[in-house]
Write a structure and sequence with these properties.
Blueprint (H helix, E strand, L loop, with lengths): L2 H18 L3 H9 L1 H44 L1
Length: 78
């Protein structure tokens, strides 16, 4: 299973769990707009995935900057 398939599977499972926790009246509302609701959920989850990736990229950059500062400090001390 590639990364996109895994994300889609995870989203499907999350949507099924969320739908199963709704009341009957909430089910009726969701069924009426299920396609747009699913699209909105997928967009929201995509945004969350992008935010997580951006946070990881920032953390990686911060680690690299810290290492570079440490290397520079060691070079100056010697």
């Amino acid at each position: 299973m590639n990364n996109n398939e895994r994300k889609h599977h995870t989203r499907s499972m999350a949507q099924k769990q969320e739908f199963s926790s709704l009341t009957d009246s909430e089910h009726k509302v969701r069924r009426g707009s299920s396609q747009s609701y699913i699209e909105q959920q997928q967009i929201r989850m995509d945004d969350q995935d992008e935010n997580k990736q951006a946070q990881m990229d920032i953390q990686q950059s911060n680690k690299m900057m810290l290492l570079m500062q440490q290397l520079l400090a060691n070079k100056i001390c010697f």
